[in-house]
Amino acid sequence: MPAPNPDTLKLAKDFSRPSIVFGVARKAGTGTIYLACSDFKVYAADITAAKFEPKELYGHESYATSVALAGTTLVSGGYDGKLMWWDTAAGKVARTTDAHAKWIRKVVASPDGKFVASVADDMACKVWDAGTGKLVHDLRGHKEKTPHDFTSMLYAVAYSADGSLLATGDKVGHVAVWDAKTGAQVGACEAPVMYTWDKQQRLHSIGGTRSLAFSPDGKQLAVGGMGKVGNIDHLEGKARVEVFDWKAGKQTAEFPGDKFAGLVNRLAWAPDGSWLLGAGGAGEGFLLFFDVAAKKTLRQEKVMMHVHDVDLSPDAKELVCVGHNKITVHKLG
Fold first, then answer.
1. Percent of the chain with pLDDT over 90
2. For residue 247, is it left (φ>0), alpha (ψ between -120 and 50) or beta?
3. What is the domain-level CATH number for residue 168?
4. Which of 128, 129, 265, 283 is 20–30 Å from 135 (CA)?
């Protein structure tokens, strides 16, 4: 079935929150969403209820930065370096794992729900058995220092639709592609424009690969971030997306942005591959839709918050966006 046209996008619901929502995961076929927030807590809420009332489930020791749903297990990561495993059926924490030596940036579940992958600023991607919490792979394909000897960061991780591939992306725009079963590195791409180093004013850097998404057929890999920045104290660079033939390590399309400034924090393909969605922001947020094959932008929509994460329904007809003090629900089709 063809994916809905981005021109049909419309705001359906808008909820205010007292904190920043960094991550969202949705229980398939329901209105239940899980939220990772800046108040250190993880919440559950129903976006279809008459009154939106998030319920606190548990807390981290610092910012809760990401959530992923693997079957009936919810896994969250935090700036405390811990992964927490919540049994949604039993309604309790199943385990807490000291997973990383530094801040966890992103947690994702494999499409079959059997594995969870986490990335952190210790520059490791770790793959875990979702049922037992056992470490399966410790993937090291990113340097701890930038070319200018600053501490690097590992922001992004994504599975392919069939679960056979895993991609990770860091601050300097280096992207590694892994065989998810064996843990062997099978490819690499470079997006250096997404990294800015200021050698005069502040002697530090900004930017990086903030989001990744494989096309439905697994042949293309989209990389999201931000273009070159003039003043590195602000997210003033234009939103930027690059698309690669990852096996060849060759860029096949680029969307340097002409309207919105800020980071592309999340990427998602339509299930039929007809368009690519990018979401993010700076002072304000945006939703961007691209026709990758035609190398053109289909739609650019302003969102009244810096968008940190989105959940696109399997049929691409509903989009939940979370960010600074707000949650929005958009409909397509």
1. 89
2. alpha
3. 2.130.10.10
4. 265
Residue 276 to residue 281: CA distance in whole angstroms: 17
Neighbours of 274 (CB within 10 A): 19
Show the domain range for 333. 1-21+259-333
Computed over every residue of the chain, the mean pLDDT equals 95
Residues with Cβ within 8 Å of 64's Cβ and at least 6 positions away in sequence, in order, are: 22, 23, 36, 37, 38, 40, 41, 42, 76, 77, 78
Q: What is the pLDDT of residues 229-254, one digit of tens each?
A: 766 556 678 999 999 999 999 999 99
Mean pLDDT to the nearest integer, 188-204? 80
- Is 286 inside any structural domain? yes
Residue ending a domain, among 255, 270, 295, is 255
